[in-house]
Please model this.
Amino acid sequence: MEAKLRNLYALQQIDLNLDELEELKGDLPSEIRDMEAEENSLQEQLTALETTMRTAFTQREHADDEILSLREKSERYKSQQYQVRNNKEYDALTKEMDSAENTIARLEKEMEMFEGKATVARHDIDGIREQLESLRGVLDERRAALAEVFKSTEEEEARYRHERDKVVHKISKGELAQYERIRKAKKGRAVVTVRKGACGGCHATVPPQRLLELRQNRKPYFCEHCGRIIISDEIAVTVAPSA
Model:
């Protein structure tokens, strides 16, 4: 059991060192994630606007082609009116001409609408492209800064990761899951020593009987106040520093 307690404490020390290296990165990782999310959102908006603009221009061209076709038909109808043999044929051609003119008027309004829609989309596209250019410039700077931090800590972090893998291999899955759960809930500190009769995490007094049991190193004990794993100083001093 002492070996298990030493492994838990050793894992805690390694994780604290890794936490310190992570703190050197500051807010850069979260800033980069937020900026990448914003970049993706803007890119999606840009793609949608470009689709809208292309569709509007295509619809405008189709309307323009239809107007040209209707005008050609209307001109033919006019020529045919001079060749009709009765009022019925004349009225039929006049009706076709009126229908063509009405359709042309409708299509011309639609063309204006499509042109306006495309113009608005093009204006918005220009704005988003400017935002993307500015955002990507800052994002590149943040990534470069983070790369410098990674470069300065890469070797040390790799060493701690290697040490951590070796220690984790000696801990059961259940104990590791419990450790990770407490660590997450207690801001990274799951295993602490007793200091002057008190929990090294929350400073709550540990009962005398529990102190006696703790020094026997027979099993993990948990602080009755904060729930952290508490170990004796004897265990702590047998663990080689990870720094």
